[in-house]
Design a protein that fits this description.
The complex is a heterodimer of chains A (about 375) and B (about 140). Chain A has about 375 residues and is of the alpha/beta class. Chain A has 14 helices and eleven strands. The two termini of chain A are about 15 Å apart. Chain B has one helix and eight strands; from the N terminus they run αββββββββ. Chain B is globular, with a radius of gyration of 16 Å. The chains are: A alpha/beta (about 375), B mainly beta (about 140).
Chain lengths: ~375, ~140
């Protein structure tokens, strides 16, 4: 168990989520925050710490009327919601603040087609970087036709296949299992069942990576409220406790030249996570493992010790990760189906499973859940228990 | 390419004081990688300190251009106008023979997809991508 204050999750919430919502990051942030406050029964007056990836936390706090603020943090080149959540957990655990709001706001990125046509670059700094003359590290990527995330994901996927004999069908089994879970989730965007034939017929984006292996770009806001166990016991929802947490970076941000593409930051993050708890992988009832691309979930299954190194393909193919299997994974449907939330959806789904709020997709007797974010150079994971 | 005129200009590298040696080398058709002059480790991408021994004495040195294939992906979707009429192409992470885990991002050319496999021996080839841009790409080693 982590030393310091025991930390609990007491509120979770989403904004409206969808394609081209027209909502500003501020609006997404406000909607998600209000939803998490309503879920917790707290008001803005109870919050004294804030962290965000995707908006500016001091501006967020000022707009919301959170004053005084005892702690804040923001990040740019970080493992997305893992950074928000883990910063907030550390701040509450240390006593830096007593109740922290962790945020992740995302605006949908343009399609590959509009990027190729050159019409997407205007006004979007992330996309413009593909079109600008290539400076810094990008001079070793963009001129070569590299640098898009689907391409490094293709490299990581191919290496998993080359090193372990993982098959395209095994990635398909993962995608199909997630889609089945999404069919039981009213919040999911894609809810129609998927067959292996449909998976194998879907187009490659960067072979062997298919479009169905990629998370779905949307506008989304997500908020999670962390506080001390003592405060959590006075609130309205079942208590969910942070048992262990880990945030890890192993190198700079160049995914394309990772020295080992199948044992990346999740392996180190998992080692740290398990070193800080008496619980073991066999104690975990549900897992919520980042799926920006299918291979990332495979890396986490192996890193966290749910299967041997290289064993994710057979583990998934055998049905272990489906509802009713030995370890239901991504029971919300994953970001491939609920839309890109950069890990926040996994924190929120793990929390809801431990509260018993998941309806048709509820895993009976869920006492321990793990969730994770990111891959490659950096990663984070959190182990949660029912309080 | 069906046209003699490229459909768009490629994203051009902007050399800086750390990387000028690399692009100067490419112009001479030599592959050059930064090397620590104190401990001998190669470092890519170029940095201002050696991460192995913290020496500041770093310089670009020509390497053999021999490598093995570590991983690859067939780019089937262009993300920049320059590549629209050039897909599919094979992006590859190659391991230069000079040092274990000395990785370099490039393309593999002149190799059918079914012959791509981990560990495939490769050699550098300098390819004119446009009138302005030459790149060090890799092809299966001869002999």
């Amino acid at each position: 168990m982590v030393t310091g204050n025991r930390v609990a999750i007491v509120g979770v919430g989403y904004s409206t989520v969808g394609r081209n919502t027209g909502l500003s990051p501020d609006e997404l942030m406000i909607q998600a925050t209000m939803a998490s406050l309503a879920d917790s029964g707290l008001t803005v007056r109870d919050i004294d710490g804030i962290t965000s990836v995707g908006t500016e936390p001091l501006n967020d706090a000022w707009m919301l009327g959170i004053e005084p603020l005892n702690w804040w943090a923001s990040g740019l080149m970080v493992p997305a919601f893992a950074y928000s959540a883990l910063s907030a957990i550390a701040a509450v655990a240390s006593g830096f603040c007593h109740t922290a709001l962790a945020l992740r706001m995302i605006q949908q990125q343009p399609s590959g087609a509009s990027m190729a046509a050159g019409t997407a670059a205007r006004g979007n700094p992330m996309v413009a970087s593909y079109f600008a003359a290539a400076a810094g590290d990008r001079q070793f990527l963009s001129p070569f036709g590299a640098g898009n995330p689907t391409q490094w994901a293709g490299l990581l996927t191919q290496r998993h296949m080359a090193e372990f004999g993982t098959t395209e069908e095994q990635f398909g089994h993962h995608v199909i299992a997630q889609r089945y879970h999404a069919s039981l989730n009213d919040d999911a965007i894609f809810r129609d069942p998927l067959t292996m034939d449909e998976y194998l017929a879907s187009r490659y984006v960067s072979k062997p990576l298919r479009i169905l292996d990629c998370d779905y770009p949307v506008d989304s806001g997500a908020a999670v409220i962390f506080t001390t166990e003592e405060r959590a016991r006075d609130l309205q929802k079942p208590v969910v406790l942070v048992e262990s947490y880990a945030l890890t970076a192993i190198r700079d941000l160049n995914f394309e030249i990772l020295e080992d593409m199948v044992r990346t930051a999740p392996a180190e993050s998992a080692r740290s996570l398990w070193s800080r708890t008496d619980l073991e992988p066999s104690d975990v009832d549900t897992a919520h493992l980042y799926d920006g691309f299918s291979v990332i979930t495979f890396q986490w299954l192996e890193a966290l010790g749910f299967c041997p190194p290289g064993g994710a393909g057979p583990f998934v193919e055998a049905g272990n990760t489906r509802l009713g299997g030995s370890l239901p994974v991504n029971t919300d449907g994953g970001a491939c189906n609920v839309g890109r939330r950069h890990g926040a959806n996994f924190c929120i789904e793990a929390t809801r499973q431990l509260r018993g709020e998941c309806g048709e997709r509820q895993v009976e007797g869920a006492d321990v859940s793990v969730w994770s974010t990111a891959v490659g150079p950096f990663a984070g994971a959190v182990l949660l228990t029912r309080g | 390419m069906s046209s003699t005129e490229p459909s768009a200009k490629p994203p051009m590298p902007v050399p800086d004081e750390l990387t000028q040696f690399f692009w100067d080398g490419v112009a001479r058709h030599e592959l050059c990688i930064q090397r620590c002059q104190t401990c001998g480790h190669y470092i890519h991408y170029p940095k201002t300190i050696c991460r192995f021994c913290q020496s500041r004495d770093l310089a670009g040195e020509r390497v053999s251009g021999k490598a093995t294939l570590y991983s690859w992906t067939i780019a089937t979707q262009p993300f920049h106008p320059f590549w629209v009429d050039k897909i599919p192409y094979t992006l590859a992470t190659v391991e230069l023979v000079e040092q274990p885990r000395l990785m370099f991002m490039s393309q593999v050319i002149d190799c059918p997809e079914e012959e791509l496999e981990g560990g495939l021996p490769l050699e550098v080839a300098f390819v004119e991508m446009s009138s302005e841009l030459t790149l060090p790409l890799f092809r299966p080693a001869r002999g």
